[in-house]
Amino acid sequence: MTKYRQSTDTSAPTPTTKCTTFDAQTWLSTALTNLETCRAGFVEVSASNYMLTLMNNNVTKLISNTLAINNGSRTPVESYKDGFPKWFGPSDRKLLQTGAPRVNIVVAQDGSGNYSTIKATIDAAAKRSGGGRFVIYIKRGVYRENIEIGNKMKNIMLVSDGMKYTIITGIRSVGGGSTTFDSATVIVTGSGFIAHGITFRNTAGPINHQAVALRSGSDLSVFYRCGFEGYQDTLYVHSQ
Question: Which residues does the UniProt record annotate as the domain Pectinesterase inhibitor (predicted)?
Fold first, then answer.
């Protein structure tokens, strides 16, 4: 129900905005994406014989037909300013371009920061008041963690000493018992996310099949000078 409310709140027109045919096309495509994600997940956990029978209906065909009827495939032309899309504001551009942005909290494995793990930092950031830009500086190191920045955590920025020096790595995989959807080392769904100078890695290896380094469902997100390393399905862009 939470996902449903978020969808209806986002897609509903307001006095100053309206839902265009392109918006409708995006939401319909999202519905198809989520259906296929469910189907793939049931296959990966060997529950397909039971669950796919329940899902064997004409919902997919109905959505596909609606997509064709809506015919909102004409993509709006993206406009840029100084090399950045216009929706990316000047204050955020300055954060990317400055060498040492002002940070709210520091992660350091050697104990010199506020926290020694990224997960503890994200948990602390979730309790902050307000929804403005929140900058987390991750000092150099290899962080063996699985991180999730959820829907309610908006405008989070992760910045580091550079993608060669700050690495977030995990080993979840389909071969290890996860679904592709849940195998990601880092999951981001909160809108307005920015990552600067970080490597996202999954080292499950080729024998373990799908193993995601980063899954992003974050709207209006930016990954600047970042690395993505893995063997299969390394970068997974999904619906919000």
Answer: 14-69
Collapsing DSSP to helix, strand or coil, 119 comes out as helix
Are 174 and 209 in contact, with CB atoms under 8 Å apart? Answer: yes
* Cα(25)–Cα(83) distance, integer angstroms: 27
Residue with token string 């329940």: 54
Residue 134: how many CB atoms within 10 A of its CB? 18
pLDDT band per the 50, 70, 90 thresholds, residue 1: very low
Q: Which pTM does this prediction carry?
A: 0.79
Residue with tokens 């390393």: 229
For residue 27, give both structure tokens: 């939401």
Question: Which domain, by its residues, includes 60?
Answer: 21-70
In a domain, 140, yes or no: yes
Mean pLDDT of all residues belonging to the chain: 83
CA distance 107 to 87: 29
Alpha carbon distance 226, 120 (integer Å): 22
Same domain, 156 and 231: yes
